[in-house]
Amino acid sequence: MDRERPDIVFIGIAIMDSIIKGFEPEPISVTGYRAESCSLNIGGEAVNGSIAAAKLGVRTGIFSHLGRDVAGDIIAWELDRHNVDVSSVLRSDEHATPITTMFVADDGSRKSITNSAHRYNFHPEMHPEMFEGAKAIVLGSLFRAPFDDSEVVHAVVSAAHEKGILVFADTKLPNFTKMNLNDIAESLPLIDYITPNEDEARYCTGEDEPEDMADVFLAKGARNVVIKLGGRGCFFKNKDEEIYLPAYGIDAVDATGAGDNFLAGFATEILRGRSNREALEFGNACGAICSTAVGAGAALKSRAQVEEFMMMKGK
Length: 315
Known about the structure:
The structure is a single chain. The protein has about 325 residues and is of the alpha/beta class. It has one domain: UDP-N-acetylmuramoyl-L-alanine:D-glutamate ligase. It contains 8 helices and 13 strands. It has helices at about 45-55, 70-80, 150-160, 200-205, 210-220, 260-270, 275-290, 305-310; strands spanning about 10, 15-20, 35-45, 60-65, 85-90, 100-105, 110-115, 135-140, 165-170, 195, 225-230, 235, 240-245. The chain has a 9-stranded mixed beta sheet with strand order 5-4-1-8-9-10-11-12-13, sandwiched between helices. Strands 3-2-6-7 form a 4-stranded mixed beta sheet. A hairpin with a 5-residue loop joins strand 11 and strand 12 (about 235). Helix 7 crosses helix 8. It is globular, with a radius of gyration of 18 Å.
């Protein structure tokens, strides 16, 4: 089926998540352990965000890499099923699709295990035509493949900036390649919105308070900064505006993908012409809804669902 060019393109790795909830560390036999549940879910920032944005009614594409393996087939099928344009997905036999094992605690917090497949760094800077015609791109995430190379980051954001494409950039704590804000100093002024969570912002800035964290990003050239504070909400700052929004009250089940869903909601509302505050409130709702079920894409269903949730919560 022919699709129009996407309005927003998510760029980053695609992975398969093996999610283990309620893991019991005491063995039940010599080699056996027990958990409350085990499930397979597609993941990766670009996958989570693109599916969420598509559910919210925006023409959405993904620029990523998948191996020619079972995990890659599942991810490609799921993306297409959710109306995400997969025409920019690169596939090869040379590199496997990354698989992550995640241990989810009762409060929704999580720890993950990665492997060498996560090291593969496909080259989005070599194919700027993959996001030609988009209104926005989302980098998921700075300091992780493929954006763990400062030259790759600068090439992609420069190409977008030259074409008048909005740039949203999430962040992650570095794993295989050690990087910091100084490594992407020349790229920061070309990023319209940067959205670290609290731990990532602390790593990047050395500060503990959201206001101070944001000030460091702004001083280094970032235009708009969103600090995601998990269960405490979010903090936004630019040179003209400062906004703190508390989180919606929910019973959290699994925080996997909550930040990706937040960013998808926030970015799509900015594209719709909403104010920063309105976009943040909508993003907060998307992140909250995501956290009410296991897996990054299980709970969020549609824009109407988010609007109803916000109405019920008095927003």
